[in-house]
From TrEMBL, chain B:
Annotated InterPro entries: PP2A_PR55, PP2A_PR55_CS, WD40/YVTN_repeat-like_dom_sf, WD40_repeat_dom_sf, WD40_rpt
SMART domains recorded: WD40
Name the UniProt record assigns to this protein: Serine/threonine-protein phosphatase 2A 55 kDa regulatory subunit B
A Gene Ontology molecular function term of the record: protein phosphatase regulator activity
GO-annotated cellular components: protein phosphatase type 2A complex
Gene assigned in the entry: PPP2R2B
Keyword annotations: Repeat, WD repeat
Sequence similarity: Belongs to the phosphatase 2A regulatory subunit B family.
Entries under Gene3D superfamilies matching the protein: YVTN repeat-like/Quinoprotein amine dehydrogenase (2.130.10.10)
Amino acid sequence: MAERVCQGEFSVRVLATDGELGSEVQRRWEGIMVGGLKRKHSDLEEEEEKDGKWDWSPAGLRNYQQALLRISLDKVQQRSLGPRAPSLLRHVLIHNTLQQLQASIHMSTAPALPPEPLFLGEEDFSLSATIGSILRELETSMDETESPQNQVAPTGLQNEVLPQPDPVFLEALSSRYLGDSGLDDFFLDIDTSAVEKEPALAPLDPPHSLFCAPGSWEWNELDHIMEIILGS
Amino acid sequence: QTLDKKAVTSLILKEIHFPKPKAPTDIISTVEFNHTGELLATGDKGGRVVIFQREQESKNQVHRRGEYNVYSTFQSHEPEFDYLKSLEIEEKINKIRWLPQQNAAYFLLSTNDKTVKLWKVSERDKRPEGYNLKDEEGRLRDPATITTLRVPVLRPMDLMVEATPRRVFANAHTYHINSISVNSDYETYMSADDLRINLWNFEITNQSFNIVDIKPANMEELTEVITAAEFHPHHCNTFVYSSSKGTIRLCDMRASALCDRHTKFFEEPEDPSNRSFFSEIISSISDVKFSHSGRYIMTRDYLTVKVWDLNMENRPIETYQVHDYLRSKLCSLYENDCIFDKFECVWNGSDSVIMTGSYNNFFRMFDRNTKRDVTLEASRENSKPRAILKPRKVCVGGKRRKDEISVDSLDFSKKILHTAWHPSENIIAVAATNNLYIFQDKVN
């Protein structure tokens, strides 16, 4: 069941579940996503009209991408409301747009990255994007904190963070948090249990922009999230 | 019954974007003239088909010549429920296609998302009277009371038009049917859904041939779907289908049973200066139509109409801008889902003019020879019956002239997706939400 949480001028569609684990992640997502989606939609359109082409400042482009990402993920969720079978055409078009967004977001943060792995399905995309952002914050926090006690933790955590998360866990996480979503509806005439999901995450270079200010209490919060996600 | 639930669902999803139309099931979803232009069929969201017939010319009432009046109304499809997938199957009529007339009756195909039906529309203006075994009210008579025999006679009665379902072609499509097309052999037709195209014989309802299948083995690799399909008007072995990536494939059924390998592939290279995140969405083709001559195909994508020569695959021969002023609004149109609207396009009888719809109840006509174009509006407020339609103009820049309308004032809930052109005369039918407008060329 999706809930819309509004914070100031933007909204984050939070994926809530029953149970403690869900609400824990929910609160963290709110805190993290605050910084990225400030721009109002109408402002975006003015920017779009002004230039028409993609030569904005990196910050403007990033905000635009984030807003498009938000809108696209909203649409993916919307699809599962209502009793009628969703439109496959619409799904494919949104999915392809999401893929472009993902590619361009990763290119804008780390141009030297290897190409992204195969697309998993939009539920994994939203998850991997969020996990990706969480990881980026961790890396940033690790770089910018200087206190000795934090140096111990990053070393230990780095070994856990960088390896690929367990794909089975990813699937369990996505199905729990995103409900009956993704391409399942379109799979109904074939057996999807044999479909393998590839790990979504590759090691990322430290980004230049931040979602949240580094600091030891933030670090502890993020540390806590990583423990939940990695099940350690 | 389910009507209230459907109304509520659409309210939740659309409320914040634009006002809901008064009666959602009255929204016209398809319009089609028959081969002579005598009949005009409309299908709506509620599964109903309404057929209009053109008034016969009469010396007494010259001014009524050419008016279309209701000829027949029937319920073609009902809402269904797929219990296996827990999904409703909408009764909305996606397409109607007429068969050429071969006897006194009319035949048409109508389809919703899952099921195609062949309907026979026929007139009855006589009824038999004077049965031996039944009395006038239809009750059986006691045979012992019958002492003489007589031959029943046909007596005239008030004209009754009845529609009967002659064939039901069901259970052949896993995905949503977007097109049907009658073949020029008049014995077969095809139905296309998002991933597959099936070939049917009109006489056989329990099997069909699959002639195109683009479903990937792994659905997660799906990046392209079929959006429209049509048979060539003269060559019964040739058909085209369009895709969500802006490509058209022409297939020849003589080459193989499964037409997975196209004979021709039409695609225009992308203009790098116009590239955006929405490039793919706006390139998705919403309609494809052969010209009457069979030499050209016309495609409609979100912002343009293109005419292709069958002999040139690498680019269209003509491109017409329908509403290029929307290019800077694509983000909003993506958010409110308008970017997914599927506009249709039509040729006139001589293939010299093409027509397509837009927003604000505007529709556009392009003259291929003179390269002139015009924007007209289908609206009760702005036109009295029999008044000449005034050309409209959308103002894109700073100063707006008196009769112009600015881009920001356009009403995106008033969209003209479906239009039709009489096969030989300048008569057009334009569906604006739940209203049907029929316009005729004043010059006589």
